[in-house]
Design a protein that fits this description.
The protein is α/β, with parallel strands linked by helices and 328 residues long. The protein has 13 helices and eight strands. The protein has two domains: 62 residues, no CATH class; 196 residues, 2-enoyl-CoA Hydratase, Chain A, domain 1. Strands 1, 2, 3, 4, 5, 6, 7 and 8 form an eight-stranded mixed sheet that branches. The two termini are 26 Å apart.
Length: 328
Amino acid sequence: MVKNTSYMFVTGPDVVKTVTNEVVTAEELGGASVHATRSSIADGAFENDVETLLQMRRLIDFLPSNNTDGVPEWPSFDDIGRVDMSLDTLIPDNPNKPYDMKELILKVVDEGDFFEIADSFAKNIVTGFGRIAGRTVGFVANQPMVLAGVLDSDASRKAARFVRFCDAFNIPIVTFVDVPGFLPGTAQEYGGLIKHGAKLLFAYSQCTVPLVTIITRKAYGGAFDVMASKEIGADMNYAWPTAQIAVMGAKGAVEIIFRADIGDPDKIAARTKEYEDRFLSPFIAAERGYIDDVIMPHSTRKRIARALSMLKDKKVETPAKKHDNLPL
């Protein structure tokens, strides 16, 4: 949509005023800013017609002609084996300090070319298209800069639709995970968070395209399962050494397990350290088969490229049935 000149609504401002007595302008009712930020009907809003057409050309360059053609392959001047040492210091020492997940995506894709989808809606999750070794890839990533990267209803629906789109056109999906859980609260529960979260779980579990997952930091609880975990069918799951894979954070877990020691800060601190060492380490998860390998951040692009090359001819046989029952 184009800002201030394009509108979409089922009933216009005049009908709304007649029926509900609400006075609202066309822009407020169904303008680009509304649909790109609140309703998610528009995947993007641009300043003028020229910019919109240029961005649509860029988007179409990423997409296949149809669902049987396979993704387009462009000549790439970016080395597949390129390493970026700055990624080794991307994750802050403080686990509660945010960082920009888009920086990681831009440093991994060919020539830093990333086309984000629905960038103004549910900013706690990032979706969009890039290329690895000249071939289109869909990216889904939690964004720690917004709401600490938690999953809520809007983020779940946004990511689920994007994953379904990629699967429909045989576009491989790379998922970057840094998720502390689902957003708690009555507003989320009353709004059907369980159902909306299930949409993302369903979308990933139904995928027949190559799925590569990288856990950069937090991967807690049910949100870890939903974000393309091995349990729901991801092909290759990697973790950085900074990854923390567990049911919940150490502090919360210790306060539940050792409730009797809450009055003694020293005991709680010791228990928390013990929990972090025993359960949060990605090497423990690797030993148990929940992830395939612990990789160095600087080699992320190389490992993704290798995994996608290996999965290039992936075929999945699905059982015969009339249709799926999508959790609408």
